[in-house]
Amino acid sequence: MSNSSSLSNSSCPVVPPNGYALPLETYYNDPSYDIRPIYNTTVAMERIFRWIYRWNKNSDLPYILGGDATRDDEKSYLIGLLWASFALLLFALLWLLLMVCFKWWGPKRVGFFSARRLRPPPPEEPTEALEKREQMYKSQKNAKGGVPFQHNGIALGFDEMGKPTKKKSKTKKFVKGTIQAPKKLVKSTIKAPGKLYNSQKKKFQQTFHKSKKFARINSAGEIDLTNYLDEETETKSSSGMRSVSSPNPPGNNQEGGSVLIMTQDDERAIRDYEVELERYYQICDARNTRLRRIRAATAVCAIGVVTAAVMFVIMGIPTLWESSKVTDTAISMLQQQAQVVQQAVLELQSTYQETSIAVEKFILDVNEFCPNAAEEFCSNVQDSEQRDCDFSTLPQLETELNVMIQYLDGTFELVVRKDVLEQWYFDLLTLDNLLNRATAYYPTTLNWAFWVAVGCNLTLALICVLICIAAMLLYFGHPLPLWLKRHRSFVMVPTFLVLVVLGWIFSSAFIVSSIVGADACINSPDAFMLSLLNRLEGEFSINSVLHDFLKYYVRGCPVESAPKDLDQRVVIMTQLIVPSLQDFRNAMDRIGLSNVQQLCGGADLSIFISKINALETQLCELSQSFLTTRMLLNCPNWVQWYQLGAYEGMCYYASTGFAWAASTQIVMMVLSMIILTLRVSFFELNEVADEGTQCTSNWCCCVQVMPDDEDDDEDESEEEYHTSDVSENHEEEVLEEEEDEDLETEDVGIDVVDDDREEGVGNGRNDREGDVQ
């Protein structure tokens, strides 16, 4: 008796009320578990959920997944999600279409936005008047042997960067064949041509009044010889030029000759040309200033793209990588826990089989243990379903025997069913398969897409560095390196455009991920996970105990909703079946073994008592197996990994990471679109004589609607503005002006050079000088 009592106390567990369903707060300070208070939301998650417009569509994701939503509700949520993501793609598409329209409209309508730069038309040169002056001054020579004066000291041209230049001589420049005007007079005339023209005209007229051979100063600061020769020899030519014939002009030993004289209309045309030329320079300067600002803006945008890419790498990659790592760890630990429970269920099945065999043998022993009372107490003893026992012939132990057989024959089979244990094992395999699918999908599918986005963003940042270098070089007036020119149009810009298009796609993907994550995690991910478990209920067996436990974990392990199935089985085993054996044994002890032996006859009852003790031990071991399985399903063993995967991995890290990724990606794409719109800034101009000025973007400046027709080419050629064909290689010889103070007196010395001698027609004869007074 003492042996059985000690055996019962040591082997059979005692299940306290709610002993396996304690609140989570109980484990907060337990170092064995990583359970802590949870935070229901984050700032990024809340902002994404509140700020992103859903077009008044359903945003309750747990309700959609719960199974109670209609197809219209699911469709409404999907439409709202897609519109929120397609809004970005639509914005990018409209921007690209606008850039195509800018390209189509051309530079005259939209200017720099067409990716081409055209200068305003330079003023039309009065070629006839300039030729007159050139021919007239060819026969004259400076009093000090100077070279011809270049009209107004202005040379029209453009530098390598396409900027108009006004090449004014630091020293006074003279063109071969032109009369040199006094330094003082030229300077003052250039500054105020209208005022000095009248004041100086009178002075020179008085100087040469007697002979009527006086020179005057025109608006260009040059000496005009209109009245230099005698009036009697003056004739008019049919071309509008005045040809003056003189038998022997002063200072010229030629027997006869003619000098071409400019008219007032020619002078006016030249003055108007110079005014228009100055206005042209001002317009070009304004446009160049605007272009410099555009280049500066492009460089700033490129730096912004690089900065956003760095933030994407610094803030987005670690958080999303940590999310993937934490989620993978949680899933792996859940798999390990499920495998441990699988092993426990296998042991439980083995223990059940042994116990079931022991129960059947014990029932057979009970059927024959008292032959004096009845040879067999049970009919159909081999068939558990048809078995019927009657212990009325042994009234001393009838009650105890009926209770014990009822528990062993009926309750035991109900409490420990073979099919139930098989369902448990099947459910654990199902859970393991679901976790395997999650492990294969989450890191693989999301990681490769994320790393592709990282590669594209870093490549885009590298190209933006090159664009920034090109824009800054052109901003400061430096030519682009040859390697950058070669790869710019056919490699850099097309790759940049492709990366921008891919970037918008990644932006939409990040936005969708952020929205879904915010919908799943806002306030708490528990509702989302419960809806997901309800949707996956068909994957488990009917009335699955494991499915109930999973929902119990997701709810936060509330005591009132803890599954009682395993606890009840353990309680029935330890508090009903095992005590029934103990009551039967105690009843025999109460009657006395010797009295029972005399009453029943047959074999020694001590052997029967040992069988009772062995069955009790076997039942306690089975109860302990149930209890072990129940302990493995205890809340802290699973909730800590659920919190790690759902709260930290899926919500905290993922929502923050996707928020950083989406925001930096959108900033990069907007700045990249600005760079594409202002792509003219990192292309310099090519100066092509007689072919106009065109952008060097051979790749149709990134976007081209269709190739231009021949008529369009002709129109463009008419619209493009030709530059002046002036270069330093074709500039005529310049010399420094020597100040002539003699012209301030009454006598002005002017050297005249014969035109033929100046051209070398005289067999090397020396130039002769003459004085004109």
Automatic annotation (TrEMBL):
Q: Where is the composition biased (Basic and acidic residues)?
A: 720-729
Q: Which InterPro entries match?
A: Tweety
Looking at the keywords, is Glycoprotein present? Answer: yes
The record's Gene Ontology cellular component field reads: chloride channel complex; plasma membrane
Which superkingdom?
Answer: Eukaryota
Q: Which UniProt keywords apply?
A: Cell membrane, Chloride, Chloride channel, Glycoprotein, Ion channel, Ion transport, Membrane, Transmembrane, Transmembrane helix, Transport
**Which residues does the annotated region (Disordered) include?**
228-258, 707-773
How does it sit in the bilayer?
Multi-pass membrane protein
Q: Provide the transmembrane region boundaries.
A: 77-102, 296-317, 448-477, 489-512
| Polar residues bias spans | 236-256
Q: Which GO terms describe its molecular function?
A: chloride channel activity
Q: Mark out the compositionally biased spans (Acidic residues).
A: 707-719, 730-758
Compartments annotated for it: namely:
Cell membrane
What family classification does the UniProt entry report for this protein? Belongs to the tweety family.
> What name goes with this protein?
Uncharacterized protein
